[in-house]
Amino acid sequence: MRKVWVIIGFLISVSAAWAEPVRITAFGDSLVQGYGLPQGDGFVPQLEHWLQEHGAEVEITNAGVSGDTSAGGAARIDWTLADDPDALIVLLGGNDLLRGLSAEEMRANLSKILSAAEQADTEVLLVGMRAPNNYGPDYRAAFNAVYPDLAKEFGALLHPDAFAGIFERVGGDPAKAQEFMQDDDIHPNAEGVRENIEALGPVALQLVARVSG
């Protein structure tokens, strides 16, 4: 009987070793691509490292395109999903915001992306952006509502703000946030990415659990 348990234990350990990691595609703009950062300091390598440190077996593919809008993402989502990832992290909208593009157009583009993922049976984590006060109350309300509305409609996980980690760290003080930003005041530096990943990480673990469970 003891030999049987030894064999079972060996088979379990071998199965664990052979288990394939969860394949996640990070789909977005320069925030995903890692603009202005050394190769190991961007969003994708830092998130992959964070998840692995917290016990998740994952491989994350970088599908970030600097300058991409939600329309650009919608145009390339089918090609991205052709690689058949287990899960998708969608981080788009920052360039729509910078250009003052229509929140309704962004909603339609993101809806196309989430619909394509749903048809491909791919779990999604939608990462939101927050419009600042200087965009006016109407635009701000319309823009900020897009992400929670779509997450609810498609049953996607939601992380409401890509910059949540930085603003939590500085207590919402924009002046203090500069310490965590690159000189362009748009992209986080390596430490800023680290703070944002700390905030995003627990929701990303939920994404892994959805795929694994």
From TrEMBL:
Residues making up the signal peptide according to the UniProt record: 1-19
Any GO molecular function: phosphatidylcholine lysophospholipase activity
InterPro entries: Ester_Hydrolysis_Enzymes (IPR051532), SGNH_hydro (IPR013830), SGNH_hydro_sf (IPR036514)
Keywords for the protein's UniProt record, in alphabetical order: Signal
Domain of life of the native organism: Bacteria
Classification via Pfam families: Lipase_GDSL_2
Record domain SGNH hydrolase-type esterase: where: 26-193
SUPFAM superfamilies reported for this sequence: SGNH hydrolase (SSF52266)
Classification via Gene3D superfamilies: SGNH hydrolase (3.40.50.1110)
Protein name: Arylesterase
Organism whose genome encodes this protein: Phaeobacter gallaeciensis
